[in-house]
Amino acid sequence: GDSVTQMEGPVTLSEEACLTINCTYTATGYPSLFWYVQYPGEGLQLLLKATKADDKGSNKGFEATYRKETTSFHLEKGSVQVSDSAVYFCALTDSWGKLQFGAGTQVVVTP
Amino acid sequence: ETGVTQTPRHLVMGMTNKKSLKCEQHLGHNAMYWYKQSAKKPLELMFVYNFKEQTENNSVPSRFSPECPNSSHLFLHLHTLQPEDSALYLCASSQEWSRTDTQYFGPGTRLTVL
Questions:
Q1: Whose CA, among A1, A14, B65, B113, lies 20 to 30 Å from A72?
Q2: CB within 8 Å: A103 and B45
Q3: Whole-angstrom distance, CA of residue A87 vs CA of residue A106
């Protein structure tokens, strides 16, 4: 079945550092791809999404490009802030709309 | 209120209790979902309702019973739970159950089963 694999955390970095979280997927059809973020004690918030190959999603300084050739959707941000500390989930929806999540990557940004 | 709301935010129950979780969405969506988030396990889809009809039951034990009286409200009825059912239960909604529609999540109910 369809699945998502993302790098394990925690990822610890200093404020203003660059962040990359790797995400790869396995799918039989043409999935849509998502990044969700979960701040401590809260539910999941959509960060960005892409629905077809070569689409780039972007929001709040984060970007990810849907790469069909490498089956990847890596999340990047050029300069992180302490407020970016959270757990980030890569996810896909299969042809029927079933949302499948990766295990999540905890990011800790220190001042 | 806006978005997706869930009540209660925290719930502690014994194994013999019966309780219900409530979810309400104010987004005009037609699909609603229950997810389970356990420590050290990926988020698991439990149930999907699309236009008030249950379209997905992801092999969930019968001690969890969903109810969707209308497209804005979703309940999860709980009875004779086990300690391993302790988790964060998340509700979500989307315009429809489709490949491209974004699912919007509520804050979750933190459930502890003693």
A1: A14
A2: no
A3: 4
- Tell me how far apart the alpha carbons of residues B63 and A103 are, in angstroms, rounded to a whole number: 26
Residue A78 has phi, psi (to 5 degrees) of -75, -30
Do the beta carbons of residue A17 and residue A41 sit within 8 Å?
no
How near does any CA of chain A get to the CA of B43, in Å? 6
Give residues with Cβ within 8 angstroms of B59, minimum separation 6: none
Q: What are phi and psi of B98, to 5 degrees?
A: -145, 170
Tokens of B82: 């086990």
A 10 A CB-CB count for B49 gives 21
Cα–Cα distance for residue pair A35/A19, rounded to 1 Å: 14
CB pairs under 8 A between A and B: 55
